[in-house]
Design goal:
single chain; 168 residues; alpha+beta; 3-stranded antiparallel beta sheet; 29% helix
Length: 168
């Protein structure tokens, strides 16, 4: 009887060993799952998948420059602006056209800019325009220009930005 019991326990041990060795055959990112009479590989939640996984790789974002411009008729005090235009020439043409539409006759471009912001600062001694990566930077630069000749009445008259747009 002892021999039969030993033989039976040995067989049982070998069969379990076979299941255990079969469980080690899962591919990376999966773990073995088994029960009585069955086993399979299941994905590990949150496992860092390789670029060859079934998820499509996203293309890098593409940005398109956007232009703005400021045009003025300084004698008549007329302002024309444009923002979000596709190129510098288009922004300048629209700013000039707006200046003329508002009654300006000697309109000229004061500044044009891409992917940034512009400010016009007005004081008793005239006006100044400046550009920067933010409105705050453009205003700060414009105020320095306006105050450089001692003008203490400088104030912000106009600000806007032409920021790049995502290409779809």
């Amino acid at each position: 009887m002892k021999v039969k019991l030993f033989f039976l326990l040995s067989l049982l041990g070998l069969s379990k060993a076979g299941v255990v060795s079969a469980q080690g055959g899962c591919p990376p990112g999966q773990y073995p799952v088994s029960g009585e009479g069955w086993n399979y590989c299941a994905p590990i939640p949150g496992y860092d998948q390789s670029p060859t996984s079934s998820q499509p790789e996203q293309p890098p974002a593409r940005w398109k420059s956007r232009w703005g411009a400021i045009a003025t008729d300084g004698v008549k005090g007329v302002l024309g602006t444009a923002t979000g235009e596709a190129d510098q020439s288009e922004a300048e043409q629209k700013a000039l056209a707006q200046c003329h539409t508002k009654g300006g006759s000697a309109c000229k471009i004061q500044t044009s800019y891409a992917n940034g912001c512009a400010a016009m600062i007005v004081g008793n001694n005239g006006f100044s325009t400046a550009i920067g990566s933010t409105i705050e930077e453009a205003v700060s630069k414009g105020m320095k220009i306006c105050r450089s000749d001692g003008d203490t009445s400088c104030h912000v008259y106009y600000t806007d930005c032409s920021l790049p747009g995502l290409v779809h």
